[in-house]
């Protein structure tokens, strides 16, 4: 029997899901929680095979509850069952340690199938969730120099020519103090320690004028 804990702040949802799962020959609902806090407590006490976790609850949301459960019990298998498909919900939930992510609009049979698959060690994601993850993976990471302003890029290009701060100020018709601020910003945004590393970065990324 697959033991299951249901965490959802809507009583009717808990009743409906519990009734369906208890009718399955290989499943048993051993606990229910109406908020994240009680879900954490019951999860650590009962150690169910599967935890069905809602995301939005009144006191403690499902993301925080998932995080706390995983911190104390890394082997826990948590399936998020929610109505939300937003990026700000999906990624934090998976990063917190959820194994699978299902929508409440899924058919009862699909949730039961997800429970069995997750129990067997698989990770089950709704097609919409998979699509979002793939889009994020395909999206090229922002280059560090993309954060530079036009003036900071000009200062960096002057740095590649070996010019001092005063020479850069004279070339760009700005004050020495302003140049120093720009140089400091360039080093911070490129995440380098000194001018030499900044110049090397500029050459490696074809930023030389």
Automatic annotation (TrEMBL):
Ribosomal protein is among the record's keywords: no
According to the UniProt record, list the residues that bear 4-aspartylphosphate.
Answer: 54
- Mind telling me which SMART domains this protein's record contains? HTH_LUXR, REC
What the entry lists under SUPFAM superfamilies is as follows:
C-terminal effector domain of the bipartite response regulators, CheY-like
- Give the domain of life: Bacteria
Q: Which key words tag this protein in UniProt?
A: DNA-binding, Phosphoprotein, Transcription, Transcription regulation
Q: Can you say where in the cell this protein is located?
A: Cytoplasm
Q: What PROSITE patterns does the record point to?
A: HTH_LUXR_1 (PS00622), HTH_LUXR_2 (PS50043), RESPONSE_REGULATORY (PS50110)
Kindly indicate whether the keyword Oxidoreductase belongs to this entry: no
Domain (Response regulatory) spans 3-119
- PANTHER family, per the entry: TRANSCRIPTIONAL REGULATORY PROTEIN YDFI, TWO-COMPONENT RESPONSE REGULATOR
Q: Please report the name of this protein according to its UniProt entry.
A: Response regulator transcription factor
- Species assigned in the record: Aciduricibacillus chroicocephali
